[in-house]
Amino acid sequence: MSYIGILITYIFIQNFILVQFMGLCPFIGVSKNSESAIGMGIAVTFVTGIASVVCYAVHTFLLVPFELEYLRTIAFILVIAALVQLVEMVIKKMSPALYQALGIYLPLITTNCAVLGIAIINIDEGYNLLESFTAGIAAGLGFTLAIILMSNIREKLEMTPVRKVFRGVPIAFISASLMALAFMGFDSSLITNLHLA
Amino acid sequence: MKEIMKTGIILFLICAVSAGLCGIVNSVTAPVIAENLIREREAALAVAAGEYTVGDEVAIDTPNANVAYTILDGDEVAGYVFELNANGYGGAMTIIASYYPDGELISAQLTTNSETPGLGKNAENSWYMDMFRGLGGENPLPVTSSDLSADDAAAVSGATVTFTGVSTALRNGSELAKSLGGGV
Amino acid sequence: MSAHMKELTKGLFKENPTFIIMLGMCPTLGVSTQVSNALGMGLSVIFVLTFSNMAISALRKIIPDTIRIPSYIVIIASFVTIVEMVLHAYVPSVYSALGVYLPLIVVNCIILGRAEAFANKNTVLDSALDGIGMGVGFTMSLTLISLIREVLGSGTITLFAVGGFDGVIEIPLLNESPIGVLTLASGALLVMGYLKAFFQWKSSRGKK
To answer: CB–CB of A59/A34 below 8 Å?
Structure first.
């Protein structure tokens, strides 16, 4: 599949939140205002991009040569946890301003399914290094898109009279459901029809 | 420094024990998994071959199919069975299908897929593949759902992408069988 | 004994991980298209949760505070890997139906959450009971969601094939004209939203 095809696939067709439900906890938890949604989105995109590359490298150069593929889950989650720590430390040193903005979201990302999810999907789909990186960035962008849309909807919902039992999380889920319905308009025939396969 | 050494050693020990445990379980399960895979493929091929027996593997060079075997009526080559690649609504699918050498479909079964239950997943049922059975030789295989009878078209409506994926793959298989030819 | 029983039952309703604490929702929605998948996922989570809780509780005095999160993750990941391999070998149909959501149990917030909130402070027995209770609570919610989605969405209930029974119960009227959208991603979020609203309604009534 071409790189544009991969981008479209993971941003729209296989949108991590609205189609695959990966990263749903922060999606509901951090989407109350658009500022924190953007921060979370950028932080996730950053980590999915790097984690895709590093996990690909670990799988190809460490696990496969030693026939230890069955340790994939353990190796990936350790790499991701270490990576998130590292990114946090580097950002803290390099750019305190950026750390102020992203800092509080970074520790949450280790347990965001989206990161481990894309690392495993990359291997299952047999992507090469650059394709993995593209898929990682695309998955992060898809997450960002969904969480920003969601936060704008929720800001509007604050001003709207909603029945008491639906206020908060339930109405957020129902809004997400309607968004998912809209995202069904993107299906894999799009890739075929645009000749991106 | 001593503190770092100590925590490092503890973490290392935990990792080592975990990896060791996984290794032990793996050594038990790996052969079972490999055996399952072979048995599944053999069973699927045997079902597709129906009254015939599965013969030798045939070398093919096409992205449309993964493997090809001859099917035998006694010692004669009666046709071919292929594992075909298809694109469905939920991504890649595989279909095991058998053909006579003139391209006529003997039987087909959708195996791996991630289609939607109730819609595209209907293609796993035998009635779905009955729409294609016996076609591909003298009578062509359907290209779109408008080539089907009204009843059949209604049955596949709502899952057009799956239908197009299945019919495209089956037509590719039919062409492949014709190109291999021989037998009969 | 009654104190132990409390650890076991709190996960079922009062602190139900899915509907009250809202943890571990990715697999909840991802695999709830069929009842059999929900049960497979639920049993896997019960296994991982119970054993990782026990292991973490047993090691709670040995693991230094600074490396506790990585240690927990490694312990959880190894139990997940064991479940993955065992399912792949002996129940391949469930393994392929759960797909990527199976390794994702590692990052299921319920498990790390219980390790952090409960297992590293309590005895092995209490931790095991907590794990079983929370796991069963998770399985019940998951099964509830999948029942709603499968019955209304495809008009069937898929269980496991035993003997002559192929494992699929067809529901007469719904089977012919199911509400297909419920089996899709959108339907999962919709069902979750309504169930959460129901639980909010119930707890607000309970307070009065």
So the answer is: no
Per the CB < 8 A criterion, the answer to whether C31 and C100 are in contact is no
Identify any residues that bridge with B84 across adjacent strands, giving them in sequence order: B65, B95
List the domain boundaries for chain B: 46-180
Cβ–Cβ gap C85/B26 under 8 Å: yes
Strand order across the beta sheet in which B53-58 lies: B53-58, B65-73, B76-88, B91-99, B105-110
Higher-confidence residue: B153 or A138?
A: A138
Separation between Cα atoms, residue B89 and residue B93, nearest integer Å: 9
Which pLDDT score is estimated for C57? 93
Distance to chain C for A23, nearest Cα, Å: 7
State pLDDT tens for residues C94-144. 888 888 888 888 888 788 888 888 888 889 999 999 999 999 989 998 999
**Interface check A148 vs C, CB under 8 A:** no
Residues whose CB falls within 8 Å of the CB of residue C192, separated by 6 or more in sequence, listed in order: A173, C25, C28, C29, C145
- Closest to B80 (Cα-Cα) out of B93, B163, B62: B62
Calculate how close chain B gets to C205, using CA atoms only, in Å.
Answer: 37
Domain boundaries, chain C: 2-200
pTM: 0.79
Contact flag A74-B19 (C-beta cutoff 8 Å): yes
Instruction: Write down the ipTM of this complex.
Output: 0.84
The answer to whether the Cβ–Cβ distance between C178 and B33 falls below 8 Å is no
Taking alpha carbons only, the member of B142, B93, A10, A22 closest to residue C26 is A22
Chain A positions touching B23 (Cβ under 8 A) are 70
Token duo for residue C64 = 């230094």
Predicted confidence at residue B148, as pLDDT, reads: 78
Q: What is the pLDDT of residues B95-134, one digit of tens each?
A: 888 888 888 888 888 887 767 666 777 788 778 888 888 8
Q: Which of A71, A188, A189 sits opposite B19 (nearest CB)?
A: A71
Indicate if the pLDDT at residue C190 is higher than 50: yes
Cα separation, B164 vs C184, in Å, equals 20
In B, which residues are within 8 Å of C77 by CB distance? 18
